[in-house]
Amino acid sequence: MEEKAKLAQLLKEMELKSLQNQINPHFLFNTLNTISKTAYIEGAERTCELISSVSTLLRYNIGSLDRQTILKDEVVIVREYFFIQKTRFGQRVEFKEEIDPACLSIPIPCLTLQPIIENAFIHGIESMAKGAIITVSIYEKNQKIWIEVTDNGVGMAQETIDQLMDLREDREKSTTNKGSGHSTGIGMSNVIKRIKLFDKNSQVKIRSTLGEGTSVIISLNKDRKGAYS
User: Fold this and answer.
1) Each residue of 37-90: pLDDT tens digit?
2) At residue 18, what are phi and psi to the nearest 5 degrees?
3) For residue 190, what are the contacts with CB-CB under 8 A and spacing of at least 6?
4) Pair 50, 83: CB distance under 8 Å
C-alpha cells in the first residue's frame, strides 16, 4: 500500500508538470494536422513528417501517465524525438540503435526512455559543435532485459550522480529537471523511482566520466507481465 501511494504521488507530480505546459490538446492537434496537410499540399514533405513527429510525441506525453506501456511503445516515441532533434541539429548529432526486437514486449513505466534521452541530449551533447553521438541499446542477458542510453558528451561529476541516485523524498525537488528544452519536465530521479516501484528486482546505474560521456543502464525482470502489480 505504501509503495502504491508513492507511485500515485509520482504520477500526480508528473501530471501537474504536464498540465502546466498544456494548451487545449484538441486545438493543438487540430492545428498541427492543418499545418501538416498544408505542408503536404505545398510539397513540403519533410515539414509534413516533422509536424507528424511533433504531434505523435505530444499526444504520447499528455496521455494518461499510469497507462499500460511496453518497451516497443517507448522506442517508437524515442525515434520520433530523434527525428525532431536530427532535423534541428543536422550533422552535429548522430543517433544509433542497437535493439533486439525480441525484447520489446516487456512492460515498462510510461515515459521512461524519453526523459533519459532528453537528459543525454540537453546535459550531455547539446553544446558539442560536432561528433555528438547518443546510442540506445536494448538486449537480453541473464534472464533480464537491459536498456542502455549512452552519450559521448561532457559527462558528470560523481556528486551529480549521487544526487540523481538519492531517492529520498527530500532530494526530489533538487533533482527535478529545470533546464529549458525538455518536452516532458520529468527528472531522472522520478524515472528511477518509478522503475524501482515498478520492478523491485530492477537495477539502475549511472556511469560517467567528465569529458568522455555518460551511460544510464537499466535492467528489468524479463518475465514481468503487468505494471505496478
Assistant:
1) 888 888 888 888 888 888 888 888 876 666 778 999 999 999 999 998 888 888
2) -65, -45
3) 10, 13, 14, 115, 172, 176
4) yes
| Domain of residue 136, CATH code | 3.30.565.10
Strand partners, 132: 93
Residue-range definition of the domain harbouring residue 131:
70-221
pTM recorded for the entire structure:
0.77
What is the CB neighbour count within 10 angstroms for residue 91? Answer: 9
Helix pair 158-165, 188-198: axis angle to 10 deg: 50
Q: Which of 72-76, 159-163, 167-171, 183-187 has the lowest mean pLDDT?
A: 167-171
Q: Which three cell numbers stand for residue 90?
A: 543536422
Residue 219 has phi, psi (to 5 degrees) of: -120, 140
The Cβ-side half-sphere exposure at 29, using a 13 Å CA radius, reads: 11
How many domains does the chain fold into? 1
Residue 196 CA, distance from chain mean position = 16
Q: Which three cell numbers stand for residue 107?
A: 512492460
Pairing of strands 144-151, 132-141: antiparallel
**Taking the CA of residue 225 as centre, how many other CA atoms within 13 Å lie in the half-sphere pointing to its CB?**
0
